Amino acid sequence: MLIDYYKAIEDSSRKMLEAAKHEDWEQVVRYEGACAVLIEQLRARAASEALQPGQQLEKLKIMQRILKNDAMIRFLAGPWSDDPEVINFEFLHSGTMCVEPSLTFH
């Protein structure tokens, strides 16, 4: 099902975030590559398949979590992430670069 691709992309983005929290940038790049493959597969599948009725809300929630993961990864990768005066630990540890803007509008 199409929603499974969104779930897989979310899972990969979550793993990217965990790797970023551990400063394992090689692993982040690996998961980013997995995201790219999944996004291409999703695009191909979305051309001939639609989400099932009722899955739009689930997709929206998944996309919000992916965007949150992406923002946190970008924050951790940024040059300011080592500045203790800038780090907001609640933000960093609150949970969830695997984002393709066009996916939010399918």
Sum up the structure in keywords:
mainly alpha; 106 residues; single chain; Methane Monooxygenase Hydroxylase, Chain G, domain 1; disordered C terminus; elongated; 65% helix; 4 helices
Account of the protein in words:
This protein is mainly α and 106 residues long. The chain has a single domain, classed as Up-down Bundle (Methane Monooxygenase Hydroxylase, Chain G, domain 1). Helices cover 65% and strands 0% of the residues. The model is unreliable at 86-97 and 99-106 (pLDDT under 50).
Report the principal-axis shape: elongated
Query: What integer is the average pLDDT?
Result: 82
H-E order: HHHH
End-to-end separation in angstroms reads 15 Å
Structure in a nutshell:
By secondary structure, the chain is mainly alpha-helical.
Please write out the topology.
Blueprint: H1 2-21, H2 25-46, H3 55-77, H4 89-92
Helix pairs in contact: 1-2, 1-3
